[in-house]
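# nightly structure sweep
# worker-07 picked up a monomer target from the shared queue
# config: single-sequence mode, recycle default, output format = structure tokens
# input follows
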Amino acid sequence: MIVAREPENHRYALLGSGRLARHLVHYFRAEGIEANAWARQPDPAFNTVDVTVYPDPRARLEAAIEPCTHALLLISDDALESFIREHDFLQRKILIHCSGALVLKQAHSAHPLMTFSHELYEPEVYRRIPFVTEADGPGFSELFPALSNPSYALAPEKKALYHAYCVVSGNFTGLLWERVFREFETELGLPKAALLPYMDCVFANLASDDGVVTGPLVRKDMQTIRCDLRALSDNPLRDLYEAFLRLCCIALPPMETVARKSQ
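# output follows
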């Protein structure tokens, strides 16, 4: 049984059934914060209100938020505005969305600066997640007084740039490693496990700010860079390699020395 720790004037409804919704429901319950869950799908795992009593999603939503003061809109960014518009009774509650990029007049914002996997985390992982709010709105401690997460306020006009940096650093990093894991296995016949110690050290160095960039980009070893570019040939990773040369302010080698196979 969940023991409520929230002040009497704070009770939450968590709306959605995606990955973020699953994680935040788990976090709230681990912290003993009483909250109602709702999802359009009638799965009891995502609905506090009895789905057999309220089979209609809209009626079930009204029942779920009725005793709540705050509603967290844990749905896709593209659906946020239409969801609020189509469920006008939500405006009676304090609305909070978790988009890192969008600024909405109808809802406050608290973006968790974290990546969420399919597996749920231990409570101490959730407690370390920084939340980024909008500087002209209520702060994190005002929205969630029972949580002690670190938080930062950001000017609304900087949110899109903030989110772009998050995508570049997080999503792009993941895509890059996934691609290299696959290339190791399919092109080189080497297992993913061979890369894991290297990956662990790269991220440990990044966290400690201890010489994270090494190799030919640091030494500006143009012979090795040309060799790398030839080997990548028309692999899409070649374009990425060239982009990072520009990021490091390294002039690209003459194209005739590193011609692509298709040329």
